[in-house]
Amino acid sequence: VKAWSPAQCRRANASRRACLIARFNFVYAKERLDAEICLKKFICDIEMVQRIIYVAALESFRAAKKAFWKIKITVKRTLAADYCGRPAALDVAVLNYIACHKDLFDFCCCVQEVVCCLNVNPKLPCPSDVDFNVINCFIRELCCLAFLMQTLIPALDIAFGIDGELFNRNMYYRSCDSDFTAPFVAYHIWPALMENGVVIVKGEVVTRK
């Protein structure tokens, strides 16, 4: 197991954090819109399309986090056999190892799990001929992003929103077609990125009376 100094760990963590936040913003600004274009070929309702994208983001993070914790347990058990340092240092070594060996993560399995969740979600009553695999590149990128965000200290995660919740200007932006006087969220377009309960990147919602 490679021994990292505390300063090395902090620098590596800060560098990975900055890159992952930038990727999250890029997915929101570019790849999310590309996914919307793909879905609009099958679904005319823009609200339904945006709901699908949002649920896909939530499910991607859920599936990636579940896969991460399974891998972390296995890697920690393997590294612990030859590790003589402090338990806290072992945890850091495990995270660094996983961050450097992304091939441990089965992206294809994770993507298919997300697609299956979209197919059975009762809030997404789409036509039977809609194949959510058309946005598998978008889902794959989110799964990869979510997985790597778990290697940070502290880990980054997204906020889970509920339709009808009170609009929080510290957590969300209103979409351009929102009713700017409405106090409640009609539906979510994009989740907020969180770190230890603090908003790092705001999400986007639609507010209506």
UniProtKB/TrEMBL annotation:
Lineage: Eukaryota, Metazoa, Chordata, Craniata, Vertebrata
Domain named Mitochondria-eating protein C-terminal: residues: 16-207
Keyword Cytoplasm: yes
This protein's GO CC annotations: mitochondrial matrix; mitochondrial outer membrane
Name of the protein described by the UniProt record: Mitochondria-eating protein
Pfam families (UniProt xref): MIEAP (PF16026)
GO biological processes: mitochondrial protein catabolic process; mitophagy by internal vacuole formation
Compartments reported by the entry: Cytoplasm; Mitochondrion matrix; Mitochondrion outer membrane
Family annotation (PANTHER family): MITOCHONDRIA-EATING PROTEIN, MITOCHONDRIA-EATING PROTEIN-RELATED
Top-level taxon in the UniProt lineage: Eukaryota
GO terms for MF: lipid binding
Keywords on record: Coiled coil, Cytoplasm, Lipid-binding, Membrane, Mitochondrion, Mitochondrion outer membrane
InterPro entries per the UniProt record, alphabetical: MIEAP, MIEAP_C
Encoding gene, per UniProt annotation: Spata18
Family to which the UniProt record says this protein belongs: Belongs to the MIEAP family.
